[in-house]
Design brief:
It catalyses: [protein]-L-glutamate 5-O-methyl ester + H2O = L-glutamyl-[protein] + methanol + H(+). There is one protein chain. This protein is an alpha/beta fold and 198 residues long. The chain has a single domain, classed as Rossmann fold. 28% of the residues lie in helices and 21% in strands. The chain has helices at 21-28, 54-61, 112-123, 140-148, 165-173, 182-190; strands at residues 12-17, 39-44, 66-68, 80-82, 88-92, 96-100, 127-131, 152-156, 178-180. β1, α1 and β2 form a beta-alpha-beta unit. The radius of gyration is 15 Å and the shape is globular. The protein starts with 11 loop residues before the first strand and ends in an 8-residue tail after the last helix.
């Protein structure tokens, strides 16, 4: 397994969260400034039967565009895209977004694993995966897939998470992931400067 893609340009950041995720994302996503060039794709476990207000909530908080993902639309650099309720969010070649109503994965749709594994196939070493607070193990296998292709793996320190099971499960599967508190992850994102490296 290669060292986390420290020297690789990061073209996409995928983020997974569950219980406590909106609060955690409210620390991370507002640090992204205009000119941030990576696409940011986010899965948050939400009730499947209700519309999501995440795009509306984070449009008010963020300096970069925020959307709800739409099937077959291109992945937009410098834009945050949230998975809609009750659909898996995937990345296809192009890269473009894809929505799927396939079976639940880890009791979840959208599933963090589904997003992370599909993004790893497309972006390889140019991908960063971030696992935040949550109450199940969704995302652990996906983060392992990102590391397997040489991407960068980041996990919220479990002891700082509102619900520690999701980040703890990810660290168990990917022990060489960078484990950071939210402010440390925010600093990492702020200094990423994706697209500015050769």
């Amino acid at each position: 397994m290669r060292t986390a893609g420290a020297s690789a340009r990061i073209d996409a950041v995928v983020i997974g969260a569950s219980a406590g995720g909106i609060e955690a994302l409210s620390v991370l996503l507002p640090v992204l400034l205009p000119g941030f060039r990576a696409a940011v794709l986010v899965v948050v476990h939400l009730p499947r039967e209700r519309p999501s207000l995440l795009a509306d909530i984070f449009t008010q908080k963020c300096a970069v565009p925020v959307i709800e993902a739409v099937d077959k639309e291109p992945v937009m650099p410098g834009t945050i895209a949230f998975a809609p309720p009750d659909y898996h969010l995937l990345v296809d070649e192009g890269p473009q977004l894809s929505l799927s109503a396939d079976a639940l994965v880890n009791f979840s749709r959208p599933s963090v694993d589904v997003l992370f594994e599909s993004a790893a196939d497309v972006y390889g070493t140019h991908l960063m995966g971030i696992i935040l607070t949550g109450g199940n193990s969704d995302g652990a296998a996906g983060l392992e897939a990102i590391r397997r292709v040489g991407g960068m793996a980041v996990v919220q320190q479990p002891e700082t998470a509102q619900t520690s099971l999701m980040p703890a499960s990810a660290l168990q599967r990917v022990p060489d992931a960078q484990a950071l508190p939210l402010d440390g992850i925010a600093t990492l994102l702020r200094t990423l400067n994706p697209g500015d490296r050769p």
